[in-house]
Design a protein that fits this description.
The complex is a heterodimer of chains A (254) and B (234). Chain A is of the alpha/beta class and 254 residues long. Chain A has helices at residues 40-48, 70-78, 95-106, 111-124, 140-152, 170-187, 198-204, 222-227, 231-237, 241-253; strands spanning 2-11, 14-24, 29-34, 55-60, 63-64, 80-83, 158-162, 190-194, 207-212, 215-220. The chains are: A alpha/beta (254), B mainly alpha (234).
Amino acid sequence: MIVVENLIKKFNDTEVLKGINATFEKGKTNMIIGQSGSGKTVFLKCLVGLHTPNSGVISFDGRKHTDMTIKTRRQLRKEIGMVFQGSALYDSLTVEENVMFPLKMFTNDGQKEMLHRVNEVLERVNLPNANDKFPAELSGGMQKRVAIARAIVMNPKYLFCDEPNSGLDPQTAIVIDNLIQEITKEYEIITVINSHDMNSVMEIGEKIIFLKNGVLAWEGTNKEMFKTDNEAIVDFVYSSNLFKKVREAYLNDN
Amino acid sequence: MLKQVFKKPQKWKIFNEMLFREIEDLGLKSLGIVVFISFFIGGVVAIQTALNVESPFIPKYLIGFATKRSVILEFAPTFMAIILAGKVGSYITSSIGTMRVTEQIDALEVMGINSLNYLVLPKIIAALFFYPLLVVIAMFLGIIGGYCAGILTGLFFTEDYVYGIQLDFNPFFVFYAIIKILVFAFVIATVPAYHGYYVKGGSLEVGRASTQAVVWTSVIIVTLNYFLTQMLLG
């Protein structure tokens, strides 16, 4: 379990995160939603260690980030997989080399064993014949799949995804959503997804955290999100007529 | 920044792979332009000296002597460093800068990799190792260029030129040039890396950072050249 207690992050005098408390459970797809500028990305970057919080505690299965030495922090990072918004694949490396990179860096496995593991995860993300392709030769959806393969190749305990559906068509977005959810269940990992895509929030958000101006304004499941009267989340999620009608229909049916 | 750069590499095998890649990118791929420029610069220096030595009281072997001194002391180390600052400096800034704006550096950090050490140290070592070699090649080709200019223009006899080259040869001058290029190599690898690593924004900012990196690297090289010359020869 990841537990966040009273997390505060400032940039100069601007307080972006104002004392966030949250928990993320194992085997669940946890989603962070909120308007642009609400602090979602900063929150995610604090969780993965790209930003250092000004105060507060993040603990990964009881290991508090504030108590960690450089060595234990490095060890923790090996347990983290991350899918970036733009995939962040290494342009000069092939798909195979991209996915193999963490293995080469952190394990003493031989080339044959590494290749076996790479092929295993590439097959898992439905990209069995793309080993020799470069990222520039792949579509956006395929790049996301390679990024997911790279993120899970080390068998992480924690998977973080920053806008995994951005720039993808609705069909591909659903494929990526389902893939992330399946991997979360299959590997029993804690998945935290930062998303704007309300379709995927409704579809796979087992726990949803809504940030507004750096404050946790609401939390609950996707089903609870239909029923809630919380004005802030209703305004945000059901801002389009389509979602308003979907919500009304859901509430009438239940 | 430098404290992180000079930490022990996390995996030597990966470091060695990166080092050989950088030797190829920063060194071997610069060989062509170094060969071309140094040969012609040597020729031009010899022709200019020959055209300016009109007095019959000044011996013609001074053309070879002046070409050798100019090439070894200044043209090979400083001129080549400025050329490399342009060619290699912009490459370093744009490659690291692009990695920064496309979150590839963040991806390294999330994995627990010291990105400064991983990206910059191999560049520094490659430049320190290969650039002295490039300068020695530039010295040799500059002098050969002067010799060829003598044959092609007929402004001086090659015997005089060869005698001038051999006259009063001081090995310390070669050593001095090597010291200079080692300092310049460090500047060429680190200043553009700094500009690329800390770039913020998108492709336009990466382009701006590349230009700034080349300007600053050149300014630092020229300034350091002045102080090194005063310290080592003054």
